[in-house]
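[Meeting: bench + compute handoff]

Bench side (C.D.) handed over the final construct sequence. Compute side (W.E.) agreed to return the predicted structure before the next meeting so the bench team could plan truncations. Sequence as handed over:
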Amino acid sequence: MPRPGFITQERELSSADVRFAFAQLRQRQEDPTWRFAQGHIEHVNGWLVSATTAEGLVGYGYVLTTPIGKPNPARTLAALKDSLSALKAQTLLETERMHRTLYEVCPEVAPVRAGIVGAVYDLIAKQHGVPLHQILGGAITRSALAARLLPIKAPVEMAQAASKLTAEGYRILKIKLSGEWDLDKQRVQAIRQAAGPAALLTVDANQAYETDSALELCRMLSSFGVSLIEQPVAASDWEGMARITRESSIPIEADESIAGSLANLLKLIELKAANSFNLKVPYFGGLRDTLQAARICQAAGKQCRVGAIFGPRLASAQAAHMASILPAPSLGVELAESEHILDDPFSGFDVHDGSITVCDAVGTGVDFNSSGPDQTSISWETTT
């Protein structure tokens, strides 16, 4: 039964009745020196997408353009405009048709598809007066442990950061490695001492090692109780990933090797090139396709985790709704990174004692406020 104040779905939700708009969002990092093996992230850049009905209901989505995957901002904006224009006069409840249209218009810029899908699904949930997870299938995991990332710094600084996070209640920490074997060893050792024996530690090399040195790394890390090693070698080195997976006593996780492709995921599973798979909503093109990837992992008996999203709380909250459809992962979800990103126009998705919880608020369950004290003005541009 729809909730009071919301519209019963008695007619089609046509894009002709929906006004799409987009706005650039630039957020500062709490730590402007935040670094991983492929570079540093001083600011987080993206686009907000809104879908507004004549009755005033608004769905929001987020398009990631942070240079993690080396995107082209101009190409992203052009793809966003073209994609929104292509949805005109479509029935948005026919989500399969919407996905097909977005693939045809925007096959190479998955974050654009993800942002539009997020906005439309948020709007559909709001029009029905239900939480987003019910549109996706219904939550079975209300709460999950949140893993926090530790960027590359000197060992003592990373240990201090680990102490702070564990004091805040986080039980899972992901350590970024640089590919410098001795330093990486010192980092993990210092963090283990600081976090204590009960903390679950994973590491992420972000392709920084070659196969032989990665195997040495695996042997060394086993003495520190590391639970998982993510993407130790180059994304294209599937043979190296398979060899490390065979020979390592620590489970190996693929991330960049997947490249947001269901075909790649299937091939990596076939090659036994990883024990676990890190699934990122922006790179798979949205909630539906990421959920499909998770179902593939389940069918193959492989672990998967919902990967980190750098951006506003909106994006993390939508990914959390999707994650709630799945069994709780033993190594948590990486959906707390919005905690260290400033200038966020959204509120209502927070971490408590190292855990995130999916609520039953309508839609994504976050509130939009562009006039907060730390938020610069957001200028919306409406599609024509």
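W.E. noted at the follow-up: DSSP finds twelve helices and 17 strands in the chain. C.D. will use this when planning the next construct.
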